[in-house]
Design a protein that fits this description.
20% strand; Ald_DH_CS_GLU; 2 domains; Aldehyde Dehydrogenase, Chain A, domain 2; 7-stranded mixed beta sheet; 6-stranded mixed beta sheet; binds NADP nicotinamide-adenine-dinucleotide phosphate; binds magnesium ion; Aldehyde Dehydrogenase, Chain A, domain 1; 455 residues
């Protein structure tokens, strides 16, 4: 086994070494998961529900420690990290109801009784990115376990620590041994093995569109089920009739939260031309106000980027000052700091079309509703977006016309665990969260029982 040194992105100091799984270790873990799954699926629904509630209670008791660990590993501001750990608890609590509510149907037919069952798939492989390690893990493992599956999870190499801790918490809370395992390792080794090992029946992948496409192509070989949550370049559309002060004041949080390393980041602000200058005047002080700094500080709103490599990648999008309208502040010295940056490129410039995944936002003017919609849709991505207007009819028209899975009007909220989440076009395939997520970890079986007529 090789190992990997986890780095604190706020200090560039080594945190710990993590042992990496190889192909053989991955296969062993998958075999153990398969054994555990058969026993788990046979347990009474009420017992599975109680075990998941116990898991949620154990996460609740550990929220502060999980948050501190995420801050250390990923550089997330501590307040945000606490929210993330609490979200894991809430997702587990929500799906703990599912074992007792996975209803099939009884369908009227002639000659007998027809019923459907939602059968667990078996072992599910979850592959997570580094931007929201805990929450995205929970979106996969909680509904999958609730539907009677086992889960093997590969965290992103840079950010494995909170996922590893969640697996320990699950075991301590009474999850059967082997049912939920976290396997740190390279994507091309452990992640790829989830795709090629026949015992894994479904892969849930969150990450880049490029890797997602490879996983989808490879999964075809075994007709393996996939859910893909991929990239985004979401639009924040500001109409002249909106509450412009509110739209400008909230725009920085809509894109710079988590240092812009958010698949739902509203990284293209589109502003109706008649209010463009006024909007920029309001945006500049709002960007200057973003508190960038030590993620352990309660007042910090934005921490560092996740790694030196990612810092170099984000920096490559701003090679010179020609597109820069203005910037916020950032610390200097050790740490992968990047100041919130506002660009005013042309419509076809790379900064206006590619996902940067850092604290960089582009602002473009538009002329009227049709132009706003066509500009918003001029991308192969379609994950989220916001629409700012006081006109209800326009809010509905534009919401229906924008090709994206998660839109908000006069708000930047994207994620509630009670509502479905996922992308249009090349932003993904399938949906996570919401009441139907457990069903996506099952196959529907139809059983017909012949019954003789009353004689
Ligand atoms: P990534 O490079 O695609 O990696 C994601 C995960 O896949 C990591 O665990 C990675 O392992 C693994 N991986 C890499 N190559 C693989 C392969 N050949 N087979 C199987 N697994 C493989 O993405 P990222 O840079 O971590 O994350 C950023 C991207 O994720 C952005 O595009 C963002 O928009 C997207 N994202 C989407 C959502 C959503 O819900 N739609 C949410 C968050 C992020 P390693 O760590 O070893 O590379
Ligand atoms: Mg990557």
């Amino acid at each position: 086994m090789s190992s990997y040194t986890v780095i604190n992105p706020a200090t560039e100091e080594a945190v710990t070494d993590v042992e990496l799984f190889d192909v053989e270790g991955t296969d062993d873990a998958i075999a153990r998961a398969s054994d555990a799954q058969r026993a788990w699926a046979r347990r009474a629904p009420a017992e599975r529900a109680q075990t998941l509630r116990d898991f949620a209670a154990a996460v609740d008791a550990d929220v502060e420690a999980l948050a501190q660990l995420e801050t250390l590993n990923s550089g997330h501001p501590i307040g945000q990290a606490r929210w993330e750990a609490g979200h894991v608890r809430d997702v587990l609590t929500y799906y703990s109801a599912a074992p007792e509510r996975l209803f099939g149907k009884q369908i009227p037919v002639a000659g007998g009784l027809d019923v459907t069952f939602h059968e667990p798939l078996g072992v599910v492989g979850v592959i997570t990115p580094w931007n929201f390690p805990m929450t995205i893990a929970a979106w996969g493992f909680a509904p999958a376990l609730a539907a009677g599956n086992a889960v093997v999870l590969k965290p992103a190499e840079w950010t494995p620590l909170t996922s590893m801790r969640l697996a320990e918490i699950g075991l301590e809370a009474g999850l059967p041994d082997g049912l939920f395992q976290v396997l740190p390792g390279h994507g091309s080794v452990v992640g790829d093995r989830f795709v090629t090992n026949q015992t894994v029946r479904k892969v849930v992948f969150t990450g880049s569109t490029a890797v997602g496409k490879k996983i989808m192509a490879k999964s075809a070989d075994q007709v393996k089920r996939v859910t893909l949550e991929l990239g985004g370049k979401s639009a924040n559309i500001v109409f002249a009739d909106s509450d412009l002060e509110k739209a400008a004041a909230s725009a920085p949080a809509g894109v710079f939260d988590n240092a812009g390393q958010d698949c739902c980041a509203r990284s293209r602000i589109l502003v109706e031309r008649s209010v463009y200058d006024r909007f920029m005047e309001l945006l500049e002080p709002a960007v200057a106000k973003v508190a960038v700094g030590d993620p352990r500080d309660e007042a910090t709103e934005m921490g560092p980027l996740v790694s030196a490599k990612h810092h170099a990648q984000v920096s490559s999008y701003v090679p010179d000052e020609s597109q820069v309208a203005f910037r916020g502040s950032a610390p200097t010295g050790a740490g992968y700091w990047f100041a919130p940056t506002v660009l005013t490129p042309g419509r076809d410039d790379r900064t206006a079309t590619e996902e940067i995944f850092g604290p960089v936002v582009t602002v473009l003017p538009f002329d009227g509703e049709a132009d706003a919609v066509s500009l918003a849709n001029a991308t192969e991505y379609g994950l989220s977006g916001s629409i700012w207007t006081r006109d209800v009819g326009r809010a509905l028209r534009v919401s229906r016309a924008v090709e994206a899975g998660n839109l908000s009007v006069n708000s930047h909220s994207s994620v509630r665990y009670t509502t479905p989440f996922g992308g249009f076009k090349q932003s993904g395939l399938g949906r996570e969260l919401g009441p139907d997520a457990p069903l996506s970890f099952t196959d529907t079986k139809n059983v017909f029982i012949a019954v003789e007529e009353l004689s």
